[in-house]
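Project standup — Tuesday

K.O.: blocked on the structure for the chain from last sprint. Re-posting the sequence here as requested.
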Amino acid sequence: MTIVQLVTRFQRRGAEVFAGQLSDELAGRGHDVVLVGLYAGNAATILPGRARAIDLVGRRRPLLSLRLLGRLVGELRRLEPDLVQANGSDTLKYASLARRRLGARWPLVYRNIGVSSRWLRYPGQRSWIRWLLGQVEVVASVSEASRRDFARTYGFPDARIVTIPIGTECRDLAPREERRGHLVREAGIEDPGPLLLHVGSFTPEKNQRWLVEAFAEIAGRRPDARLILIGEGQLMPETRAAIERLGVGSRVRMLGGREDAAELVGGGDVLLLPSSTEGLPGVVLEAAVREVPAIAWDVGGVGEVIQDSRTGYVVPPGDGKAFIGRVLELIDDPQRARGMGEAARAWACAEFDLPRVAGAFERLYRDHAR
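H.V.: unblocked you, prediction finished:
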């Protein structure tokens, strides 16, 4: 089967990373998989090597780039795919319009990666997306919470929405001391106590500023604790200013965007995720398979990847006191944190193993391919 996976750009963000992993896994099963990026990026960041990659090197426009649409139409005409999957963001717009222009018979799968209603920004957007969805055969939603929201927001038929989560790779682990030592060296920390981590783009929904404020309170109780922030984005200067204002500069490390973010997470004690919206947070699974429990706001599909009080803690959104309390509870009881981490790995490897998830996509494609 020839499968085209369309992503916004080749970058280390959740939707694109998983699309790269899925493409590689499907290519290993004998499919001809082509990962296509709309906007200029770096394929090496997300593509291990068995699938092909095409970067259209487009430029993002407020509504639409006709030049980019033309490039996509040309590639799809040349590739003659059996199926195309659009993976969130602008990919629905371009894939739907390309299919319409080509009069194509190949089915279009749309991968819904978040809570759609949270991203409605302007009048007419809902109607525009409903029109684009007219070219979509089936929607693969990343979580049950996302599936319900998508059906409610766009009136898309329940019978044409399936829930398939992201997958993660359950590889052998290096010893805990080795993983911790690597993180400590990379972060430049001396004599560390508990290591708390956050991984994500510096955007409003990831809520790093609040996390820094919460950490200032945590550090007042545990001065040996350290917070490590991994990622990049528009709110880095604002976050850095908050760190200095709160006087925790010596206890917080900002490592920027890192291709080895998942490996660095494996050296921490607890992953923190106070996001205001999530579809199904891949970083929680990356931490879980490395025996690191997570504490997160209960938004979107968070409760579908964290078993509360067993593999981590799920906290009501906005309840800062409860969030901070759970953090202190785990760093004050490292044995409990380690037990939760071990349970997290066992559960993630059983329920979200990449080959299992890729198999679900493969069955979906076979059911709908031309």
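K.O.: great, moving the ticket to review. The chain has two domains: 2-167+353-368, 176-351. The domain at 176-351 is CATH 3.40.50.2000 (Rossmann fold).
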